């Protein structure tokens, strides 16, 4: 018997499979398992993809051993990997590696195996009646009562040892999973009439591979609808995947689902340890769960009989993978829905422009929840022009925001403040000579983190100690400019000395369990004010929050991206929606230097439809999605001149060979240098071009194996 295997190699074609012989002493059921083979005089791991009958004209090596007892890539995932490789023009091996937890990737260095615990039980075939020692009798009675117990739980080790030696008691090992600590939110779910109607519409389509967009305002109870539908899916003996964009959302939504579905849930996201992700994946493989909840990578959960796929907060950028394979989670969800003949539900209060346009055109079915649960009012929003406040000397907090924070604190209500920039200061500069501290590896200023006393690059991770003396003019005149969440926390504590403040950003949530702890503590009213980046803007539900403040609403407007207005509207509308979600009235204050910008005005009025119409009109004039597709070609090289010259060649080749595509560039990327690589880009705009994939494949082939340059393709990128 022979098989074709896929190996992660540096040979010219990363998708090439290699044929190996299966010795008679090895398992013959190998598809989707990893095997150990000799390749280029070294032992490597490989995925078995298919059986083959080669025309043998050369010596074929034997497989050395089989690594997995069970299939880790089922037939659907093997097919899905090939689809991804073709759609995104990326190496096939990268697709399979992206699907698996680290412990199951090919060539992963496993430091620990499956965790097993030792249990003991009575040997039914050898029960002695002549045992007289009291401690031994007690052990036997315990095992008669409980059938089996952990060996370590028995205190009399010597008596247990004697019983094992007499073969009265036998010991055995059993696999155990590491439990993920998630609280059960057993809140009773009672649907409103609007929610029941939406749930029924989804239920009526459970056996159809269609996409349904659930556009529901913040606080309209989309999660309750999801739970009700998943109940029906499980009743039909099917399974469900529920995706959330941020790890910070996982504890709350998991607690809601766990309160209903108990231990029938697996959790997959990047803040779990390697062994926890491995255990959760094995539970799914063995069919021990019906519901999988997690971030982007959970879309690859190896569930059988999937009855529904739910993508909550579908507008989030985090559903797009930013390195190979650069997949869009929605593409994968739609592909899997066709395999399982089930619907995909996209839920959001601020759907992407593309998704809402498809729904308006009838490609997706549009479902709407336009009111909050029990008709609770949406928060009252006030826009503050910071140009006027700056004249008063208020650079961080407007007079209105300070007044409203004090009012909330006096009423024992909670406040959330959004500043979408972590760190203490945006950059350090010398007041004497103008020297700015920059990353030596990247074309970017270093961000100052006061807590650690470090200057850090948020691109490559470079760090250095903060200096008070300028390295150029030697004057003690270094000052910090701009504001991040760390400085905001300091200023809040100065301004509101009695308030208990907690910060939630990437710096404070790097440790395992940090997200859940901050969320639970704030929910338990241990803190009065929560400061955070965009991770606090989506999906979180805090009943006692009655005020949301946005410190710098212009942050995302200044991004050089055609989506900047959409990102701004979405971020503002989402974070505003965290206020007034229970019985108390909610307010929000937006501080901005652009109070007349349409995205800010529409967000203040909770008016998605007006924003959508304005943005669609603009995109039509400029020919941006959804009126066209975009592919971004990224070109990077350590040699600036070589990189720009090759980028020009690529641009010329594309113009000469594509007829129905607009070719823009090459141009310098938003950040010229990252990690000592110079970055250039070519942008392609098209509606349909049958030659596109052929030409792009040729370009990839031309530069394969060229160590001086790297070419990456990003289809429908989030960031340009």
Please tell me about this protein's structure.
By secondary structure, the chain is of the alpha/beta class. It has 5 domains: 2-104, GIY-YIG endonuclease (3-Layer(aba) Sandwich), CATH 3.40.1440.60; 116-175; 193-374, Rossmann fold (3-Layer(aba) Sandwich), CATH 3.40.50; 376-422 and 484-619, P-loop containing nucleotide triphosphate hydrolases (Rossmann fold, 3-Layer(aba) Sandwich), CATH 3.40.50.300; 629-715, Ribosomal protein S10 (Alpha-Beta Plaits, 2-Layer Sandwich). The protein has 19 helices and 30 strands. The strands form 7 sheets. A 7-stranded parallel beta sheet has the order 11-12-10-13-14-9-15, sandwiched between helices. α5 crosses α6, α15 (564-576) packs parallel to α16 and α16 (598-604) packs antiparallel against α17 (608-622). The chain is globular, with a radius of gyration of 29 Å.
Keyphrases for this structure?
alpha/beta, 19 helices, GIY-YIG endonuclease, 7-stranded parallel sheet, Rossmann fold, 720 residues, single chain, 5 domains
